[in-house]
Amino acid sequence: MKYNKKVSHVVSSNLVSVIGSLFTALVVLKFLISNSLISLPSLLKFVQLNPSHSYVPDFRDTPNVEFYDLRNYKGNKDGWQRNDRIVFCVPLRDAAQHLPRFFDHLDKMSYPHNLIDLSFLVSDSSDDTMGVLLSNLQTAQSQRDKSKRFGNIEIYEKDFGQVIGQSFSDRHGFAGQGPRRKLMARARNWLGSVALKPYHSWVYWRDVDIETAPRTIMEDLMHHDKDIIVPNVWRPLPDWLGNIQPYDLNSWQESEGGLQLANQLNEDAVIVEGYPEYATWRPHLAYMRDPNGDPEVEMELDGIGGVSILSKANVFRSGSHFPAFSFEKHAETEAFGKLSRRMGYNVIGLPHYVVWHIYEPSTEDLKHMEWMAEEETRRIEEEKLREFYNKVWDLGFDDVREEWSFEKDSILKNIDNNEAVNNKLANENEWYENTLEEKNKLLELQKEKSREAAKKKAREEFKNKEKANAERSLNGNKEMKDSLNKGKTENKKESTEKKQDNTNKNMNNEQNPKQEEKGQPGENTNKDAPKQKEAKQNVPADFDPQKQ
Amino acid sequence: MNINMLFFRLKRLPLASLIFPSISIFLIYMIFFANNVSILGIDQSAIKNHKWAHEIEGTWYFPFSSKFKMPKYSYKKKSNWLSNDFVEDIIPEGHIAHYDLNKLHSTKDAMKLKEHVLIATPMQTFHDAYWSNLLKMSYPRSLLELGFIIPRTPTGDETLKKLEAAVKNVQTGKVEDRFAKITILRQDSQSFDKLGEKERHSLAVQKERRSAMALARNELLFSSIGPSTSWVLWLDADIVETPATVIQDMTNHNKPVLAANVYQRFFDKEKNENSIRPYDFNNWAESEKGLEIAKNMNEDEIIVEGYAEIATYRPLMAHFYDKAGKIDALMALDGVGGGCTLVKAEVHRDGAMFPNFPFYHLIETEGFAKMAKRLNYEIFGLPNYLVYHIEE
C-alpha cells in the first residue's frame, strides 16, 4: 500500500510537470507561429529537405570557370538585407559638369555601398568627362570609411558618332528625336550588355543630371518588388517660367489615340511623347502627380523614361533592352517599356514619388533670359538718365513757382477785369491795402533810385568843381583866398571868371543880394567854409542832399 | 500543504476528472485553432496584428527630434541558411576597370587579330561527341570563351555533373589548353528542357518550347558576353561534328550573322548505307507567300518552318546544299536557326536578342534574325558548309 501510494505520488507529480512543460511548449510554439518567425511553409520545407535544391558544382579550384545559379539573382524586395548586388548603368556624354553632383548623390545613398557596382559608358564627349569621372571615382573609392566605398567599377568608352548636338534644344527638338533616340538606345544596349554580370540582381539606369533624389531611392523603388519601376521626374524652373514643371513625359500609359497614331505611321517611324506633332492623348505619369499624394501609389505604364529606372536584372538578362529600331513605333526607353510588357514583365510608375531633374534652359529660354538681362541693363541705364535730366532741369531753370504763387493773385486780378470787379467787394480793402503797400514800395524804390541818381550827379559835379579849382589855383592863389573869405564858392567862381566884365557885374550884384537875403552872409559863409574844407578831404561822406 | 497533498485532494474531487480534460481541451483549442483570439491580448485582437501607435499613425514619436528618428528601412542581414550557395564574389578594393570598346573589332582576320569568340550553348544533355568536337577546334583556346546554360531539372543535374567533370579536366590541365573563360549558368526561368524529345517537334508546342529556348539563349548571352567578346558562335549542344576550323572559316566571311547548314548523319536503310539528311529548317529566305501568311495572322501567332500546316514556300537553306558547289558559297537569309550560327558581338550589343514572343510572327532565332534586320544588319547562310546534328 505504502509503496503503491508512493508510486502514485511520483506519477502524479510527474504528470503535473509534464502537463506544465507541455503547456509552456505549446504557448511558445504558438507564439513563434503567430509571429511568423517560423512559418508553416518553411517548417514543411525543412521537413522535406528542400525539394527544389539542385546540384551545385564546385569550381573553386578551377581557374577561369564561373558557375552561377540564376535562382539566387532574381532580385528580392528587401535586397539590401539579402546582399542583392545592383549595377548602376550610367551613360555619359559631355557630362563633366554634372558628375560632382551625381557622385554626391551616390555618396549619400543609403543602399549598402559595397553592393553597388558602377558601370559608366563615356561616349562622344568633347569635354573632360573622363578625367572628372576618374578623379571623382578615386575620391569615392579612397574614402576612409570603407563602407562608403562602392563595389566593382567599370568604365567603358565607345563613340557612336553624333547625330545632333547636345544642347537642350538640340536634344529636345522634334525633328532629331527619332535618330537621336535610336542612337541613345544603341549606347544603352552596349553599356547594358557589358555591365550586366550573372551575379547582379538589380539594374539601375540613372542619368547624371538629377538635382535631388531621396537618399533611400533604391530601397524606395525596390521594396515595391516590381520588374521595372520608375519614379516621377519633375524639374524646378526659374520664377518667370512658373516654378516647377513635369520633366519626363516618356512615362505614359498607352491610349486609343496612341495606338491609332501608331497604325498610321510607317514601320520605321518613332513616336515621341511631349510634342504637338504627335497628339496621342496618353495619360502621362508626370501629370498624375499630387504633391500630397501617397508615394507608395503605383501606376501601370507602357512607355517609360530613362532618367531613373530600377529593374530586376532578370528583365535584361532575359533579353529586354532599349530597342534601337522602331519597336511598335517607339524607340529607346519608351520601347523598352513596351518590349518588357510584351515579354510579360510589369512596368510600374510612382506618380507621387518624385525625383528632381536639373533645370537646363532651352534655346527659347536662353533667348528669353538674354532679353531679360538686356531689359534689366536698359532699365538701369534709363534710371540713370532720368536722374541726370532731373538734375539738369533743376540747375538750368530758375524755380519761380514760389514767387509766382506770391504774385499770381495780383497779376491775375489785373488782367482779368471781370474777376476783379466780381471780387472787388469782397477783396476791396485787402486789395486796396495791398496796392497801397505796393505803391509805397514802388515810391520808396523810386525815391531810392532818384537819391542814387542825385548822389551820382553830385559826385560828378563835385569832380568838375575840383577840376575847376585846380585850374584856378594855378592861375592865382590870392583870388582864391579872397573868394574863400567872401564865402560863396560859386559866386567867387563866377566873379573871378568874369571879373573884368562890368556888365556882368551888375548881374552879379543883382544875384548876390538875393543870396545874402536868404542865407545871411558873413556868418553862414564862415561856417560853410570849414565844411567845404572838410568836404574836400572826404568827398562823398557828408554830402547834403538838401542843397539841391 | 505540499503539492502531493493538493494533488491527492484534487484526485479525490470527482469534478477534477471533468475539469482537467475540459480545461486542457479548451487550451489546445485556444492555442491552435482559435486564430483570431490573442493569448496575451485583452482586446480580442491577435498579438501578431498588434501595432504600435507610431505604426498606426505612420509617424515616429518625438517627430521633431532627430535623435529619435528611426531609419526607414532595416539593414539587418537576412540569409537563407537552407540553401546558401550564394557565390560571394571578391572584388579588389578600389578596383576601377577601364575598357575602350572603340578598340573592339570583329574582322575577317579574327584569329590573327586575336579576337575573342564566345561559344554559347544551351545544354539540355551533355553529349561527349559535342565536347570532343569542341576540343578539336583549332581556334586558340586563349581566345575562346564558353558559355553554358543548363535547365533546372534532374536531367540538368546530370548534365551539369558531366559538364563539371569535363570542364575541370580541361581547365586544370595544361595552361595553353585552357579556355579563356567558362561561364556556366543554372537556369531559373521556365525550363527549356520541359518537353520531351518526342513532342519537341510537334507544331502545337513549338511556340512554348521555342519561347523557353529564347529565354535561355538570352540569359546565357547577356550573362556571358564580356567587354572583350568580338564574336558569338551559337552552337547547339547536339551539334557533334563541325570542321575543326569552323570559327576561322566562318569569321573569314566577315558577315554580321552567318549560319552554317545543319545536317544529320543517319543510316539509310533503303540504300543500306550511311547518308546525310537536312536537319535545321530555320535557315530560310522570306517568300511572298510567307509574308502573305504573316499578314493574315493574329498578332500572337507564329510561323514555323517545316510543317505541312503552314506552307510558306520559303526557300530553305537546308535544301540548297550542293555537294559539288563551292564551300564558301553565300546565300542571303531572313531567318536563321541556332544550330551553328556566328554573330558579330556588336549585333547583340546593339540589342538583337531572341524574342520569346511573336516578333513579326517569328520567335527565337528566327525572330532574332528579323530583329537584326531591323537594326540594318545583313544575314547570310553557308548552304554548302555542313555541320552535323547528333542522331537520336
TrEMBL record, chain A:
TM region(s), chain numbering: 12-33
Gene Ontology CC annotations of this record: endoplasmic reticulum membrane; mannan polymerase complex
Location(s) in or outside the cell: Endoplasmic reticulum membrane; Golgi apparatus membrane
Domain of life: Eukaryota
Gene Ontology MF annotations: alpha-1,6-mannosyltransferase activity
Biased composition (Polar residues): 503-512
One biological process term in Gene Ontology: cell wall mannoprotein biosynthetic process
Main location group: endoplasmic reticulum
Membrane topology: Single-pass type II membrane protein
Biased composition (Basic and acidic residues): 448-470, 478-502, 513-536
Swiss-Prot/TrEMBL keywords: Golgi apparatus, Membrane, Signal-anchor, Transmembrane, Transmembrane helix
Region (Disordered): 448-548
Sequence similarity: Belongs to the ANP1/MMN9/VAN1 family.
Protein name: Mannan polymerase II complex ANP1 subunit
Organism: Tetrapisispora phaffii (strain ATCC 24235 / CBS 4417 / NBRC 1672 / NRRL Y-8282 / UCD 70-5)
Taxon lineage: Eukaryota, Fungi, Dikarya, Ascomycota, Saccharomycotina
Gene (UniProt): TPHA0O00430
Automatic annotation (TrEMBL), chain B:
GO molecular function: alpha-1,6-mannosyltransferase activity
Location relative to the cell: Endoplasmic reticulum membrane; Golgi apparatus membrane
Classification via InterPro entries: Mannan_Polymerase_Subunit (IPR052086), Nucleotide-diphossugar_trans (IPR029044)
Membrane topology (UniProt): Single-pass type II membrane protein
Chief subcellular location: endoplasmic reticulum
Membrane-traversing stretches: 12-34
Gene Ontology CC, one term: cis-Golgi network
Superkingdom, natural source: Eukaryota
Keyword Transmembrane helix applies: yes
Alphabetical GO biological process terms: cell wall mannoprotein biosynthetic process; protein N-linked glycosylation via asparagine
Keywords: Golgi apparatus, Membrane, Signal-anchor, Transmembrane, Transmembrane helix
Family label: Belongs to the ANP1/MMN9/VAN1 family.
Name recorded for this polypeptide: Glycosyltransferase family 62 protein
Organism: Tetrapisispora phaffii (strain ATCC 24235 / CBS 4417 / NBRC 1672 / NRRL Y-8282 / UCD 70-5) (Yeast)
